[in-house]
Amino acid sequence: MFCHQCEETVKGTGCTIKGVCGKEDEIAAYQDVLVYLCKGVSVRNLAAMEQGNGNPDAGLFVAEALFATLTNVNFDKSRFTMLITKAIKIRDALPESGSDEPDACTWKSQGESDILAKAPSVGILSTADEDVRSLRSTLLFGLKGISAYYTHAAVLGKTDAEITTFIQKGLASMLKDLPVPEMIGLVMECGKTGVSVLALLDEANTSAYGKPEITSVKTTVAKRPGVLITGHDLKDLEMLLEQSRDAGVDVYTHGEMLPAHAYPAFRKYPHLVGNYGSSWWHQKEEFEQFNGPVLFTTNCLVPPKDTYKARLFTTGLTGYPGVLHVEAGPGGRKDFSKIIAFAKTCQPPTPLPGSRNDLITGCGHDAVLALADKVVAAVKSGDIKRFLVMAGCDGRQKEREYYTEFAKALPNDTVILTAGCAKYRYNGLGLGTIGGIPRVIDAGQCNDCYSLVVIAQALAKAFGVGINELPVSYNIAWYEQKAVLVLLALLSLGVKDITLGPKLPGFVSPAVLDVLVKQFDLKPNTTVQADMARMLKA
Ligand code: SF4
Ligand code: SF3
User: Fold this and answer.
1) CA-to-CA distance for 355 and 249, rounded, in angstroms?
2) At what angle do helices 130-155 and 180-209 cross, to 10 degrees?
3) Ligand 2 pocket, Cβ-based, cut-off 6 angstroms
4) CA nearest to 449, candidates 411, 402, 498
5) What's the order of all strands across the beta sheet hosting 414-418?
6) Does 234 sit in the ligand 1 pocket, CB within 6 Å?
7) Ligand 1 pocket test: which of 21, 484, 507, 508 has the largest number of ligand atoms within 8 Å of its C-beta?
8) Which runs of consecutive H residues, i.e. helices, occur in 244-364?
9) Rounded Cα gap, residues 508 and 225, in angstroms
10) How do 437-438 and 498-501 pair as beta strands?
11) CA–CA–CA angle 507, 509, 511 (5° rounding)
């Protein structure tokens, strides 16, 4: 296997024996073959679309397939087998794209041995040139991010053929020997499409569940047994809350589900009682203590311990061998009754060690722009000197303590803008408010990064300056491919001088890094003191 799609990749270069995430060699092979087949589907479907006889469902299928290969989503071979079979079926139902079709359009698998034999010749290392490989990887991982966000929007009924067409265009491009400038152009287009997909998802979430309101979320436990829901899928939460409303159990959010408490549609459920635990990588300890069932709706799933594996459930594109999976039925309806019934037989959650502050979330663009006058006045009076965008992911290495230390060391006249699970490094610090404005403005999940763009654009307009002239510095933490897409989206908006950590992507070659540094002034993070001094002076 060779995988270098996330920040934790071995030695910063690539996982070759087994993923740090727990992905086995075999699963990596299935994922590589699935991505390869999606390229074949894309070639055929794009050609068919030009003739007016494309398959309109192929775009969503490709997005879902790519989402399944995102870090910490799916470890279950049987699910990848199904996706591979479906990819071949969709591809073969499309007309041939010409007489010289690439192998990805015609290759077929007779079973596992074919898949395992094929993988090395179609995976990342099948591209020999280091810079071409780097650009293809950057594009692929950005497309995985788009796919994840697109799938979330589609579940809520919001679709956009331009976005799925771009996903297919990007995939198909990887089968061609394109000139480097064209590949760089596609990477930039990926960032631009990232802005569109984030806007689509924002529209999907707010039209389904209302505009998030600034909300304080309890982190204590109640007396009844509970169901813990994690991941990013709000539709799953809606169905769980509806089905469990009079069942005598409570529902707690975990990880990236925290911002759900801020939506008017979810605030009406009294049994949505609070947030339990923190970011994804603490799950082994936290799920053990929770005592009740845990529902995984999306990433980040960590291979479970036997102590709680029987209490885990997956749905959507997540999967793990031996863990019960809840499939969607007609109309996307999911039956969570088994989970709810199981919860009733469990002990209530054990309080987690240490005292924890209530958490403030729900600072989406509508909530923050409602405070716009206050924010602008605070900047003008000097009460707020600088905003630090610290969005992104959390991760398990010790060096991520940098983000807690950075937040702690920030002067009191600064405000953090965040989204994604990176916030768990500092959202419990009790950093207070400035004239009623929270010092940690949590716009929500990584899915809600669009809010940060809207807020920055509104500030730029209010002050009559460009986005790079604002008193805003970017100190982004990344882990998986959604964060890669968010970074590309920021670059496509012309944001410069982004600091990225805790280390630079292993898939970026020295020559590609040189382009990013020269064009965008991208920097790796260093020490809290040095980065702080630079950002506060900027
Ligand atoms: Fe390694 Fe990350 Fe790939 Fe997992 S997702 S195999 S940790 S690079
Ligand atoms: Fe987190 Fe996985 Fe990226 Fe959604 S849950 S931000 S890491």
Assistant:
1) 24
2) 20
3) 255-256, 280, 299-300, 393, 420-421, 445-446, 479-480, 482-483
4) 498
5) 440-442, 414-418, 386-389, 472-477, 498-501, 523-524
6) no
7) 21
8) 264-267, 283-290, 306-309, 337-344
9) 47
10) unpaired
11) 150
Q: What is the CA radius of gyration of the chain?
A: 23
Helix or strand holding residue 274 (H, E): strand 272-275
Name the one residue in this structure whose structure tokens are 């000097």.
382
Ligand showing the shortest atom-to-Cα distance for residue 485: 2
Q: Which residue has the tokens 């460009």?
A: 466
Whole-number Å distance, alpha carbon 19 to ligand 2 midpoint, is 17
**Pairing between β-strand 226-230 and β-strand 324-326 as defined by DSSP bridges:** unpaired
Residue by residue, pLDDT tens for the chain (538 residues) are 999 999 999 999 999 999 999 999 999 999 999 999 999 999 999 999 999 999 999 999 999 999 999 999 999 999 999 999 999 999 999 999 999 999 999 999 999 999 999 999 999 999 999 999 999 999 999 999 999 999 999 999 999 999 999 999 999 999 999 999 999 999 999 999 999 999 999 999 999 999 999 999 999 999 999 999 999 999 999 999 999 999 999 999 999 999 999 999 999 999 999 999 999 999 999 999 999 999 999 999 999 999 999 999 999 999 999 999 999 999 999 999 999 999 999 999 999 998 778 999 999 999 999 999 999 999 999 999 999 999 999 999 999 999 999 999 999 999 999 999 999 999 999 999 999 999 999 999 999 999 999 999 999 999 999 999 999 999 999 999 999 999 999 999 999 999 999 999 999 999 999 999 999 999 999 999 999 999 998 7
Give 8 Cα–ligand 1 centroid separation in angstroms.
Answer: 7
In 246-328, where does DSSP find H-type helix?
Answer: 264-267, 283-290, 306-309
Q: Is the pTM of this model over 0.85?
A: yes
